[in-house]
Every structure is written in C-alpha cells, then in structure tokens.
Amino acid sequence: xxxxxxxxxxxxxxxxxRFHALGCWRRVGDQHRYTPPSDRPVxxxxxxxxxxxFLLNSSFGQENMNKKHPYISYDLYEIQRTANxxxxxxxxxxxxxxxxxxxxxxxxxxxxxxxxxxxxKFSNEYQRKATEEEQSRLIQALLDGGVFDLIGEDxxxxxxxxxxxxxxxxxxxxxxxxxxxxxxxxxxIIHDILFQFAHEMSIDQPNDPAKxxxxxxxxxxxxxxxxxxxxxxxPEKFHGKRVSVVGFYHGEFEASGLGVDERSDFKRILWxxxxxxxxxxxxxxxxNNVWVRIDGVFLKGPAGHMDLAPGxxxxxxxxxxxxxxxxxxxxxxxxxxxxxxxxxxxxxPLCAFLWRxxxxxxxxxxxxxxxxxxxLLVLTGVALFSKVEPYPSFLWFWFWVAVNLAFTLAAAGSAxxxxxxxxxxxx
Length: 427
Prior knowledge:
alpha+beta, 9 helices, CATH 2.40.50.140, Mago nashi protein
C-alpha cells in the first residue's frame, strides 16, 4: 500500500476519482493511488466536538447547581472504658447529594473480663432516598438548632473521642471538628436532630440483628489449644472462641500476619490484633519475624487490611516466643545428604563403638577413615581455591559423592576383614 500511496492531485480533470472517508483514491491506469487527507478537516472536527461537549456539560452543570441538594455527614467516635471493659463505638450518618441516606455503626471491644462479650456491626447505606419534604424538615431543624453557629475544637488535643460534622446547604456550608462528645448546648441539639432523622428514616437499626451481632468469650477464660490450619478449615466452629495457636509472626506497614510458616500467603495467615488491656504486660512478646504462641479470641474473616485475611485473633493475652515446629521433610533431606556425602566417615566410629569391649583388628578401618577425610579436604580446597570451573558447576559434588562411595566400600570391606580375621583367631 505504501508503495503506491503517492501524492496526487485529486482535482485534476479528466480522471475517474473516488473519495475515501480518510483520503482520496484515484485511478491511474490499472492502479488505484491513495492521497492522504489533510489534517485541517480532522482538527476542525475535533474542535467542534470539544466545543459541543463543553456546552452540554455547562448546561447540565448549571441545571444541577440550580437544584437544591443538601449534603450532610456526621461521624462520631467514642471510647467507653469501665473497670471490666474497653469498648470503641463508631457511628456515621449521612445525606448524600443524590438524596440517599445512610447509617453505619460498629463496635469493637479491645478488652473485657466478662465471660461473654457482645458487639454490634451493621450498615444501612443507599437503600432509600429522602423526599424533598423530609430534607426540608431536616434542614429547617438544623438551622433552628444553630448548626452554623457551632465552633470547632483543636484536633491535636483530642483524648480519643471525636466527632466531625459537614453540612452543605445551598448558599451556606460548615465543617467543624470536635475533640469531645456532645453533652450540652447546641452540639447536643444538632446531635439529637441527626439521630432522630436516622430513626425517622428507619436506618438506625440492623436489618438482621442476629447477623450483625458477634458473641465472643471474655479474656479471662482458658484458651483452646489448636492450630492455624484447624482455624482456617473450621472458622464457624471457633468463631468467638478463645484459642491458643503457634505461628510465624511477621509485621510491617499495613500488615500483621500470623502464618502457618515463614512463606505463608494471605490465604494461610491470620491477622494478629492488639493485646488486651487486661493482659499481663510481661506475657506479651513484641519481636518481629519470630515463631510465637498466641492466646486470644478468634473471629472469622474477612479481616485485616483491605479484608485480605480469612480470620483474625484479637484481644491477645499471651504472645511468647517458641521453637519452630519440627520439619520432618528437612530432617529427612539432611539425613539423606549425610549418608550421601559422609557415609564412609561413619563406619570406623560406629565399629569402634560396637567393638569397644572386644579385640578387633581396626587398622584398615582407620586407614580408610583418614584416607577419605584427607581426600575430601583436598577436594574441598581445590573446589574453593582452584581457578578451574568444571561444567556443569555442580560437578564438584559428583566428585565428592564418588570419593565417598569408594571409601565407603573400602571401609565396609575393612570392617568385614577385621571381624572375620578376629573370628579365625578366636577359633
């Protein structure tokens, strides 16, 4: 195509011409030659489309601005501490710009000495819209309560409790932060108005109370000794129960996992929570990348950062280091290598131990032992310091195995010779 696509004047008279959407074709003899289009029409078309899109967006934007859509969000975080329990409560109420209402509520117990602990967590969001009449009543109640007269507080002085209010009514807007709970005055009035609105919208209660409620055991009950594998295989059985498991702990930014082994992925780890405030501080071991035994309450997942973990252990009462579990596969591998590379060196010590109370000829065995030891040391020195690089690179291991095999046969023969010769002497 490129060979025949030559520039030509499509307006020459007396020629049969055909026009393409992206250029011009014309017949020259028995061939069709293509003339690329000019860039100017394309640029003009793009300019027209861009200007049309701008006009449409402007018209829709002006129409949306003319509509009176209030936006309200209220977030409240509270820490409740008693002699027997530490509990965190978070509540969010909102009225979105597209008239949807929402209510989010969750509780988290960081420690409790009670036998049974109940927590509630549910979300009723974007399930219904508020009518214009309901929005008007809410806005008028907020204005009458003095919502735009509220004065925020310094964030740096918060003791853990805080609330954040964002109100946007056509023509007015307010964003205020409070480091204390609403107790009196206009803050209490606005707080009650918003919770009353959520109650009127029927979104302040869970649709399924049983599903939204989590019942767990207290931190003082004895844990069940189990494994991470059992927890992952039977999450319903252990949900809310106190457990004691051994795993490899690794923690980093946005990660705190207790894995089955050192190379566990997210499907084979449990998210490790924080220690209970009622735990003995001397029972909490805070090192990283170690094998530990953890006692705490197991909750089925999803859990952890971005809900990637299949479960979590929270309210920890013990975190102590332990030895890694026995790796039988590694032990078998080590023993197989031991016999493969050093079996000839084991015969003389073994015979000396078995024949320690008997007189046997062991001169040949000693020669076989020291001969193999010297040969292996020489082979090791040549492999480490010689410039010779055999191909393949693991050829030195083959030499090692060959030397060991030869001296193993020699040592075995020496042992048989020593045993048989002493038998003859005894006869």
